[in-house]
Known about the structure:
Helices cover 44% and strands 15% of the residues. By secondary structure, the protein is of the alpha+beta class. Among the domains are: 232-380, Butyryl-CoA Dehydrogenase, subunit A, domain 3; 388-442, Rubrerythrin, domain 2 (Single Sheet), CATH 2.20.28. A four-stranded mixed sheet has the order 1-4-5-8. The chain has a four-stranded antiparallel sheet with strand order 2-3-7-6, covered by helices on one side. It is globular and about 80 Å long. The protein starts with 7 loop residues before the first helix and ends in a 5-residue tail after the last strand. Bound molecules: flavin-adenine dinucleotide.
Amino acid sequence: MLQFTLNDEQKALQAKVRxxxxxxxxxxxxxxxxxxxxxxxxLKRAFELGIMNSDIPKxxxxxxxxxLEAALVTEEVAAACPGVATSLFDNSLGMEPLVLSENETLKxxxxxxxxxxxxxxxxxxxxxxxxxxxxxxQCLAERKGNRYILNGTKYWITNAGVADYMTIFATIxxxxxxxxxxxxxxxxxxxxxTVGKSLPKLGQRASNTAAIHLQDVEVPLENVIxxxxxxxxxxxxxxxxxxPIIGAFAVGAARSAMEFAIDYAKKRRVFGSKIxxxxxxxxxxxxxxxxxxxxxxxxxxxxxxxxxxxxxxxxASIAKFYATEAALEVGNDALQLxxxxxxxxxxxxxxxxxxxxxxxxxxxxxxVQRLIVSGHVLNGYKxxxxxxxxxxxxxxxxxxxPSSQEVTAWRCRMCGHVHYGPExxxxxxxxxxxxxxxxxxxxxxxx
Length: 447
Ligand SMILES: Cc1cc2nc3c(=O)[nH]c(=O)nc-3n(C[C@H](O)[C@H](O)[C@H](O)COP(=O)(O)OP(=O)(O)OC[C@H]3O[C@@H](n4cnc5c(N)ncnc54)[C@H](O)[C@@H]3O)c2cc1C
């Protein structure tokens, strides 16, 4: 059964987060954006309200909410501030490898702790020299007895500066690419762990992004999230579940930009009329709304697939790159609609636009999403139509007239010319390819 309505629990969750976003996040964010600091008190409040870490499975003491619920929550928080949404949701990103891990002892130790206490966990694949190409990471993990020793630098790590736990991807040998990658749970206060200065950014300044330097960090075997050889797949499975949520960030941020634009269009008077009366403005608003609605449907579909236990990889990529690029267009159009005021820091549009800009970059750039989808289109997708060389589209055939079915038709594989007769011609009269270029398309071969 296909249905798009939310159930009562989902509606209640949405209402609770909406209230938190409008009454508590919105008034706080400009200050923290200016200070370039994570408003930790808001994350703590979200944790107390059951909004943060809500995806920890019930078996480990969590609420066990699905990805669809995560999308609902994220849209509302991102509508108030995408930077706060990134800081908040980063716990789910950091935790997901643990949730998917085969190390039950570690899961039983750490997940209940994250469900019960306000602790942050970040996720680190990226390094100064690589981001998109995860298989080429360099951070080294050397096995020594009952420990791994980590050496290397992780870069761009959201919440690194405020994290208690770090999910670190490292390799036993960089030359082996995918085959050497493992994942480890590292604690912030362990010897050899240093966090860099907070990176100054264009947007999402209410989120913390920093490097993690690991020097001879000793990780006990109990803290192995994924054994060498299993880390790369784990990172990819994680992204398949977290990319729809980046799409939800985009839906929330674009929705706010659109709402502010609607409000402004109804008030701003130009040439003796409200700008909402101009058809060019009306069409812009219509397109903004269309993009927000379309993006949400794609996000919900990807989240629904994940919740059904299906592999959401392709839908997650589509949702991410459509929603984030649509949000960029909506934010840009909203700023244009505000005229000069849109360009000032006195209205929220310039912040939204700067915040949205990141969404097409982290958790796999738009280009990387296109690589994933094109890989599926070219190699995995099962077409309904027959291959071109078997195409039974024959002009002289009148299937309403039974005698017409006597026709034998041959199709030139090169130029598509259809020849009628018991045999193919010696050569094609259009492209001059030889007889062997022709394939019989009617009567069609059985099966
Ligand atoms: C604010 C912020 C927060 C982040 N948070 C985290 C985090 O918490 N954890 C983490 O691990 N990482 C994080 N990242 C890193 C982020 O995931 C990477 O920046 C991103 O994956 C891109 O990697 P890169 O910057 O190294 O770009 P590169 O991989 O060097 O790519 C450069 C450009 O080339 C394009 N490109 C690459 N390969 C191809 C190709 N095959 N075909 C066509 N184009 C291609 C890319 O799309 C991009 O436009 C964060 C980044 C930022 C900016």
